[in-house]
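Q: Convert this sequence to structure tokens.
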Amino acid sequence: MTLKQLTYVITAADTGNITEAAGKLYISQPSLTSAIHELEAEYGITIFSRSKKGITLTPEGDEFLGYARQVLEQAYLMEERYKGKSSGKNRFCVSSQHYSFVVEAFVELLRLSGGEKYEFHMRETQTYAIIEDVTRLRSEIGVLYLNSYNETVIRKTLKDNNLAFYPLFTASPHVFIGKGNPLAQKEELTLEDLRPYPRLSYEQGSHNAFYFSEEILSTEDCDKDIVVCDRASLFNMLVGLDGYTICSGVISEKLNGPNIVARPLKVNDSMQIGYILPKDIRPSALTAEYIRILKKLTAKSDAHMV
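A:
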């Protein structure tokens, strides 16, 4: 096994196509295929299943990839620590629930530390996928929330995956609504105020248990539910359908525009928003810088904290 072979496998997995991966790696397709076959033979496993549509990871391949990413991450850290250099391109990935401050921090990190060559990934995704991404080192860091309802299940899931949670701030629940929504005239909202309006929430895929919901109070009964997969759709429907979503209340007008407003929700609950990291891996310089920016940005959110 070589670091180059591990890089080949990770690139192939990320693209899902041998031809595309070979192009990114600047090697021939037969050379890439041969390197993967050598690894499979060395460890007695099948990393990829192959079809006319491309390649997909087998269950044992997915496990192998998690170890491969850890080995490469440690190699990159050694390069930074002892040689003072990175592996060429600056690479950074974050997986997060849909928070504008996470995107804002990502943009600032890119401006400050991207350099002349970089490959940055911003993954706004499902809660369980965030945990899985950080476990498998697809992302260096994840951002999600805990509250009294989901904390026991989320913390157990993090422990089972050898991850640690670090709080950033505690937010009181707010409601995102369009500026033209009649509720925007109120200074504070109740669950009864929300009852006539459509509730918007993010799709959680196969792990659609309430414990993994991105929105607190997801178990409250609602006659009008709309489930979406991305922030743009949710924001458009907040405005176009007079919908609402329950959230932290932290929003960036610079990134999201002036048409969405946050109003406090009168309930006895709170959200502890923080980041997750692998327990046994020292954060890279880019990850440490990203955490610094996150802390700086969320320190400005005092109006929404409890």
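The chain is about 40% helix and 20% strand.
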